[in-house]
Amino acid sequence: MSLYRYTIRRILQIIPVLLGVFTLTFVMVHALPGNPVRIYLGLNPSQALADELIRRYGFDQPLWKQYLDYLWRLLHFDLGESFMRKRPVTGLMLERMGPTVILMGLSYVIALPTALLLGVYSAAKHNQMGDHVSRFVGLAGLSTPNFWLGLMLIFVFALEFKMLPASGYVSPFEDPIAAAKHLVLPIITLATAQTATLMRMTRSSMVEELSKDYVETARAYGLPERTILLRHAFRNALLPLVTIIGLQLSFLLDGSVIVESIFAIPGMGRLGYNALLNQDYGVIIGLNIFFAILFLTGVLLTDLAYAYIDPRIRYD
Known about the structure:
It is a multi-pass membrane protein. The chain is mostly helical.
């Protein structure tokens, strides 16, 4: 099967998955306790105003009719309107996309090479002091919750030493220096767990490859250790790593919700958090669909990368 046909088949397989994500999200948000109209209007709302809002947004309709109406709009690329903000969901998401993409992108750009370097170094120094230190650092990074690390960084670098701002966001297109200062702590918070996870996986894969017979044969032929390590063992160790690298995208999305809330970054994660608190159905469903598309795209690219890394893999 050619790469083109395989890609088309995988894209078509994404459609029923997205329908499942939409259906599950729709059912779950409507199963939440509470009433979004009551949350929006407060404790003692006017009954006439409440009835008008319920009728306007179709909350008085049966659930199956609301589902079909929303699905029909979705098929026309209309994510509806935010109940709380009275604005189109698509516009809100586009407005908040920039800070989230910058935060996630920089976190990944820092986490990936750092994890690969530490993992390869740790495997090369297997059971030596460098390996023990790297494993300890990796375990500590993996065991530290994002929210705790973020709060500790704020306490140390913002409150005690007053070196960096505690919260807020500045676009790098407006003021690059101020933007860098505001992004240092959120990026460290988001990248720490990713670095630790990828580093441990890199080390495990490399240790396994370095114990195989072809590595001993290469050493017997007198190949330099660096060549064996980087040209042969690392290439073979990449296959399981690619899977983890693709799946790490979902953890970045989860982490962005926490990090944006802690550091008051006006991104999509914070938008989703506030929408969940206020039961803003349109925003919750729109963000879930967007994150699902992003995650499935990452999985698709991961599958396509397999054949490039290992030519034995066929698109069958």
